[in-house]
Amino acid sequence: MEITIGVQHLPREITIESEQSPDEVAAAVAAALAGKPALELVDERGRRIIVPTAAIGYVQIGAEQRGRVGFGSI
After folding, report:
1. Cα-Cα-Cα-Cα dihedral sign, residues 25, 28, 32, 33
2. Angle, vertex CA 36, rays to CA 31 and CA 42, nearest 5
3. Residue 63: pLDDT band with limits 50, 70, 90
4. Number of Cβ atoms within 10 Å of the Cβ of 44
5. Quick check: helix, strand or coil at residue 38?
6. What is the SS3 assignment for 21?
C-alpha cells in the first residue's frame, strides 16, 4: 500500500510503500495527532520512517493493492 506524507515547509512529499493495513496506518496517524511526538511507520523493507507530529501537513493512505493474475481485464 502506498502512503504519502506531506511535511510542512518542504516542497516534496514523503512517499513510502508499506505492508501495514490502512487501519493500522490510520491508527498510527490518529495516535500521533492525539499527542504522540512523532508518527512512526514501517516500509515494506522494514525501515522505520519517523516524522515529527508538528511537521505533518497531511497523510494520504492508498488502497491495498491486490495482485492481478492473467492478461488484460475481465
Report:
1. positive
2. 70
3. confident
4. 11
5. strand
6. coil
